């Protein structure tokens, strides 16, 4: 057991001390601003060039709706998304009923 541990320590130490590989022989080409713009346009469609992030409140509502859809009680779903049960009953439940109607 002790020999195995010593061998493992030597192996890890040799790996740590292994020299860093040299940089590539040719210089890395950087993108020009125009190329960067083209790349951004390819990734983000032109109809929505800068997609907005979902708000925290919208994310909580989405998570709450999913939990309720999985059968979680109101109190437990509210606790898991970080709101009070009262808020869930007054704000989230009516919205869920509208969406499911």
Structure in words:
With 101 residues, this protein is mainly alpha-helical. It has a domain at 54-101. It has five helices and no strands. It has helices spanning 2-17, 33-43, 56-69, 74-81, 85-100. α3 packs antiparallel against α4 and α4 (74-81) packs across α5. The chain is flat. The termini are far apart.
Short descriptors:
64% helix; 101 residues; 5 helices; mainly alpha
Task: Give the structural class.
Answer: mainly alpha
Q: Which H/E pattern describes the elements?
A: HHHHH
Rg over CA atoms, rounded to whole Å, is 27 Å
Q: Note the main sheet.
A: none
Question: Helical content, roughly?
Answer: 55-70%
Mean of all residue-level pLDDT scores: 84
Strand content: under 5%
Write a brief structural summary.
This protein has 101 residues and is an all-alpha fold. The protein has helices spanning 2-17, 33-43, 56-69, 74-81, 85-100.
């Amino acid at each position: 057991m002790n020999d195995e541990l010593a061998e493992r320590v030597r192996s890890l130490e040799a790996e740590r001390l292994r020299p860093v590989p040299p940089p590539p022989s040719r210089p890395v080409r950087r993108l020009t601003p125009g190329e960067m713009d083209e790349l951004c346009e390819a990734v983000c469609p032109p109809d929505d060039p800068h997609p907005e992030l979902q708000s925290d409140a919208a994310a909580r509502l989405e998570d709450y709706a999913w939990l309720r859809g999985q059968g979680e009680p109101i109190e437990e779903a509210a606790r898991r998304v970080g709101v009070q049960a009262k808020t869930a009953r007054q704000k989230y439940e009516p919205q869920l009923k509208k969406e499911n109607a």
